């Protein structure tokens, strides 16, 4: 499949790598200079497009005319929605997947806005983290890819490598994506400037050694 990933942050980078490893043709669109620099060290130059995904010329440069899927995973709901509308109704992309960052905006992610599939991190967290789970220990909730990758839940202790660090500063997260954080009664959709605190309940997608981050 030919896939366009819009957003080259932590989530977008992980998705792009996984898709390429699965044999797909992937192009990543990113407009932030810092993220572009990192992407260009990870992927071939022709797989990374610099620009704003709401600009049709940028989308065409990324190959949207014959794309099978576009995944909109930026941290800005408004950008994901505008791009989804252009992708679906101007270029007829068969499958448009949109990331919902703010749960209050979830109602906007509909077929009328060009979204075929919406992914809400907050809802994923709410549906998985339930009172019956023992939050004092790391829990493996789902194993993926024949056991090499997992969705795990863990409580951050004062000894954890993640404690009191901003997500953007944690180099060990190369093979781990923080999906959501539960802090008291608050559900947090993590971004680069999110500070992970002691006693946070973290939901993460990680590789086989990812559990060491929570030790």
UniProtKB/TrEMBL annotation:
One of its GO terms (biological process) is monoatomic ion transmembrane transport. Residues 139-215 form the RCK C-terminal domain. PROSITE patterns: RCK_C, RCK_N. Residues 1-119 form the RCK N-terminal domain. It comes from the Bacteria. InterPro entries: K_uptake_TrkA, NAD(P)-bd_dom_sf, RCK_C, RCK_C_sf, RCK_N, Trk_Ktr_HKT_K-transport. This is Trk system potassium uptake protein TrkA.
